[in-house]
Amino acid sequence: MRNPFATAGTRQRRKSADHRVLYQAASLCLQYPDTELLASLPLLESALSQQPQTGPTADLRRLVEHLLTGDPDQLRQDYIDLFDLSRRHTLYLTYWSDGDTRRRGGALAEIKALYRESDFLVDTRGELTDYLPMILEFTARVNPDGGRELLISHRASLELIRLALQEKDSPYAHALVAVCATLPGESPADKASALALRQPPPVEHVGLDAGDPRLLPLFTTTEMAAMTGGPARRGR
Question: pTM of the predicted model, to two decimals?
Answer without folding.
Answer: 0.74
